[in-house]
Amino acid sequence: GQQLNQSPQSMFIQEGEDVSMNCTSSSIFNTWLWYKQDPGEGPVLLIALYKAGELTSNGRLTAQFGITRKDSFLNISASIPSDVGIYFCAGLGITDKLIFGTGTRLQVFP
Amino acid sequence: DADVTQTPRNRITKTGKRIMLECSQTKGHDRMYWYRQDPGLGLRLIYYSFDVKDINKGEISDGYSVSRQAQAKFSLSLESAIPNQTALYFCATSPASTDTQYFGPGTRLTVL
């Protein structure tokens, strides 16, 4: 089946630093979604990408749908303490079901 | 009010018991999903439903069953709970027009 590799697994950064994380797939996806999960809560949608090469921003967050359709990137600029959480990528391929990455745990230190 | 609600939020039960987790949504979405989350494994799809008369197995459906009672309600049952079903369970919804899914707050289930 389709697999998603998300990296890094975890990040420990200082407030104000920029963050980059990515997801790669062994096969093509038609949609890429990025979610954030706070402790004790469900994932919340951050950015949705529907077209190869698409670059979309949501405040300090920017995500890109890779040209090959096998990868996606999420960048967070000027991190703040409330950015702490687990970030998940998810891709929708030929099976019509979302496949989730294993998450990137972000810690931000003041 | 939350668009996607789950009850209960926490449940502790014993091996062999029957458990039902409920999900309700006010978003008017046709599609509903049940996922399970385990540490280090991300979210895995248990069952999904594209409308009231449609039920489909996901990646890990063994040991679970579902019921789509109405467009707004989708229940997940564990007929005979076992300890390795201890996990966080999430319900999600999406409109048919896009594939963007919206998640409920989750149910933490512990099977002793």
Please give a structural write-up:
The complex is a heterodimer of chains A (110) and B (112). Chain A is mainly β and 110 residues long. Chain A has strands spanning 4-7, 10-14, 19-25, 31-37, 44-49, 55-58, 61-65, 71-76, 85-92, 98-100, 104-109. In chain A, a hairpin with a 6-residue loop joins strand 4 and strand 5 (44-49). The radius of gyration of chain A is 13 Å and the shape is globular. The mean pLDDT of chain A is 92. By secondary structure, chain B is mostly beta strands. In chain B, 0% of the residues lie in helices and 54% in strands. Chain B has strands at 4-7, 10-13, 19-25, 31-38, 42-49, 56-57, 65-70, 73-78, 87-94, 102-103, 107-111. In chain B, strands 2, 4, 5, 6, 9, 10 and 11 form a seven-stranded mixed sheet that branches. A four-stranded antiparallel sheet of chain B has the order 1-3-8-7, with no helix packed on it. Chain B is globular. The N and C termini of chain B lie far apart (33 Å). The relative contact order of chain B is 0.34. The interface between A and B is medium-sized, with 23 and 21 residues.
Compact description:
With 110 residues, chain A is mainly beta. Chain A is built from no helices and eleven strands.
**What's the SSE pattern of chain A?**
EEEEEEEEEEE
| Largest inter-chain contact set | A-B, 23 and 21 residues
- Percent range of helical residues of chain A: under 10%
Helix and strand element order of chain B? EEEEEEEEEEE
Relative strand content of chain B:
over 45%
- Which blocks of ≥5 consecutive residues of chain A have pLDDT under 50? none
Helical region count of chain A? 0
Q: What separation lies between the terminal Cα atoms of chain A?
A: 41 Å
Number of strands of chain B: 11
Alpha-beta content class of chain A: mainly beta
Helix content of chain B: under 10%
Instruction: Using the CA coordinates, give the radius of gyration of chain B.
Output: 13 Å
